[in-house]
Amino acid sequence: MAAKDMTPKQLHFCRCVASGMTQADAYREAYEPSDSTTAASIHTLASRLMGQVEIRSRVDTLIAARERAVAASALSDREKVLSKLRGWMDSAEPTDSTKLRAAELLGKAAGLFTTEVNVTTKERDASEVAAELEQRLAGLSWEGVDATHGPDAGDDIH
Question: Less Cβ around it within 10 Å: N or C end of the chain?
Answer without folding.
Answer: C
